[in-house]
Amino acid sequence: MTSTIHDPDALLELGQALQQAGYRFTTVTPATHRRVNDRPGNERACDLRGVFGWSRPFAEDVVPAGMLALMRRAGVVREAKNGLFATVRASTIGERLYFHSAFPTRADDAVFFGPDTCRYIAALKRSMDTLAPPRRAVDIGTGSGAAAIEVGCRFPECESIGADINDYALELAAVNARLAGCAKLPTVHSDLLNGLDGGFDLVLSNPPYILDPSKLRYRHGGDMRGAGLSVAIVDAALARLNPGGSLLLYTGVAIVDGRDEFLETIQPKLAARRAAWTYEELDPDIFGGQLDCEGYEDVDRIAAVWLRATLAA
After folding, report:
1. pLDDT tens per residue across span 131-176
2. d(CA 2, CA 4)
3. How confident is the model at residue 213 (pLDDT cuts 50, 70, 90)?
4. Pick the CATH number of 115-310 from 3.20.20.140, 3.30.1330.10, 3.40.1280.10, 3.40.50.150
5. CA 154 to CA 149: how far, in whole Å?
6. Angle made by CA atoms 187, 190, 191, in degrees to the nearest 5
7. Strand, coil or helix: what is 245?
8. Rounded to an integer, what distance in angstroms lies between the CA atom of residue 242 and that of residue 199?
9. Radius of gyration of the chain (CA)
């Protein structure tokens, strides 16, 4: 099944209405989301957070009539035996609101957003404080568009491109950009940087990094226990960065017997391009439940890491 927005203008108006209503929601991990929803009394939504944050079934009178009409125009509400469901979630980081896929994210074209996104945006904001203003940037695997939007809003003269292989992600990212007042942000269908011409002053990415047996696009990071895609992004970025350009990469890496295979793999690549780089563990232990899954039998932990690499000018 392919997801799509029937009327992007209606979804934009819905987002604006949520902002005007003072809506705020921090999306948690799937495990936390499931536990909270399983608590007695949380079977049905009783407010906007329950509808658009917790993805609970709701009755028509829970959502203001104007919002419900916008949901129907946008095609983001479905009917079930136990009530209506929003097919999108709305999460906030600071003052910005982002639409993404409803819980649970089982579809191959699901647009994921969660604690990783929050860490990614926080690290990006810190890095932008000391970053030379880029003229051209690209967010590989943009998803909701959060990073490309942050760059576009911080550097208004920059062409900040949101690139993804997921057309539904590109639809949502385009609406999210308009919500943030970054309407000129281009969204482009691209696998890594294929189909995009020219060089970049900034390449950024928060790619999938889990070894997923179902190989869902928003989760599966390929070989090397899910680090394969992150290595491919490093290769693509180093090949297309302009002199003085930077790569900012947030990803998760499997630590085996104290070794970081991802770091060991990219170090020679960075040295070959004489890149100045830093590498930081933002969180030493994420997605601990993944260690029970096939392919992780010898993994000590999964760490969230932040790579900043800059080519010589």
Report:
1. 999 999 999 999 999 999 999 999 999 999 999 999 999 999 999 9
2. 7
3. confident
4. 3.40.50.150
5. 8
6. 145
7. strand
8. 6
9. 20
